[in-house]
Amino acid sequence: MIDVSANLVRGVTFLAGEVLECNVTFSCPANSSNSTSPGGVQSLAWASAQLHCQCHISASKVMLPKVPISEKSEELELLQSSGNTSFAPSRGEKGNCILSTEPKILFCDLNLKPGERKTFLYHETIPNDAPPSYRGQAVKYSYKVTIGTQRVNCPIRLLRVPFRVLFLYGLGDTSLPEQEDTTASSNPFLAEERTQNTFLDLATQVLNTVTSRKNPNSYNIKNSDGTVARFCLFKPAYKLGEDIIGTIEFPPSCTVPCVQYSVVLQCEEHIAEECRRKPHQGVSMSSHGRHQEFCLHMSKSHMVLPIPLHVTPGFITDIVCLKWRLHFEFITAKDPSPEHVIPADQSEIAMWQGPNFLSVDTLVWNLPIKILPTNPMNASTRTALATRTPTSLTV
Fold first, then answer.
1. Which residues make Cβ contacts (< 8 Å) with residue 327, sequence separation at least 6?
2. Which of 93, 116, 122, 248 is 20 to 30 A from 30, comparing alpha carbons?
């Protein structure tokens, strides 16, 4: 038997447009024996690799656009020809294959002796228009590298390696000039190699430029009775893994007393109108963090909400649009609360007793924000994505 294993060279997270590299190793165990082959040599006819994206939808919420008859016939012919002896990477996968690259042949006619192993490098550029990996309530996008191999007169065996794709808008319209090599002429001991900016360098520069731009915005939060609070957000765009920091002030000009407030980081899943199963279908919401604080008699407070690394930044496709927002809830008192009297003499002790009953109202306010991807090397943590699918098999 031959053991096949695969691992991604640089973590499990990539930006759309990056080059993915995967090492595929074929090894023959030292104790392997085959009576039909002299010397216990094991053979494989061929091996190929391909990356693809699967789209899985909830049938109760999403209705995919109708496919033209010509495309349906082509898909039917492909399915009929995809038996056990043809390489179909998406065979057995849930959902529809919406993106796939051209398959690349790793080898033809591989012979391995007992104890021998060979490694092949598969590399492929992720398309620039690829949708990001996403696990929503109605739509899911998932990516995998599929390696197929076959013995002579045997069915094809498939090995799948999942990975994550992040999408950053605007990279296709931005170019980064080459860096000038100023050390080659002054230091003869350094290798004379011209430094070039990679796609990842360009993306990192764009992300840092957009998310480091400070642009504080203040918002006066009011209800029908008057002003409740003033909220300040220091910048409008954030990367995955960053903290959203804001201040909430209750100056004397605020005429409505606020007893408690809470802030929740939420994402909104909007299904395209032509793809909705029901005409008046609502928006699906998911929460990813909460900050809550009692603020009665406070003049200023602040909130900190970390953005998880595993969530998906905002994006839009033909089926779904994902947006992010801060969801505020203010609990306000209908009647003025008893004042907390501070003694003039600091040595005296004063105790304030809150009211036993308080008539309150609730004020809800939503603030849209932008969440962008981060450096994929920072997001390539060994989570369930890396272990959900086995990355080895025996042929």
1. 263, 264, 265, 266, 287, 364, 365, 366
2. 122
Name which residue leads in pLDDT, 71 or 141: 141
Place of tokens 């520069």: 205
Contact 150, 45 (CB under 8 A): yes
Cβ neighbours of residue 88 under 8 Å, at least 6 residues apart? 78, 82
Q: Which of residues 65 and 97 earns the better pLDDT score?
A: 97
- Position 118, amino acid: K
26 residue type, one letter:
F
- In terms of pTM, does the model score above 0.85? no
Q: Give percent of the chain with pLDDT exceeding 70.
A: 79
Burial zone of 209 (CB within 10 Å; 0-12 exposed, 13-18 middle, 19+ buried): exposed
84, pLDDT greater than 80: no
CA pair distance 47, 157, nearest whole angstrom? 10
Contact 295, 311 (CB under 8 A): no
Of 315, 313, 223, nearest to 261 (Cα)?
223
Dihedral of alpha carbons 376, 380, 385, 389, sign: positive
Q: Measured between alpha carbons, how far is 10 from 234 in angstroms, rounded to an integer?
A: 34
Distance CA 395, CA 393 (A): 7
Question: Residues with Cβ < 8 Å from 370, sequence gap 6 or more?
Answer: 236, 237, 238, 314, 324
Q: Count CA within 13 A, CB hemisphere, residue 378.
A: 11
How far is the C-alpha of 203 from the C-alpha of 198, rounded, in Å? 9
CA distance 321 to 374: 20
Cα(266)–Cα(268) distance, rounded to whole angstroms?
7
Residue type, 258: C
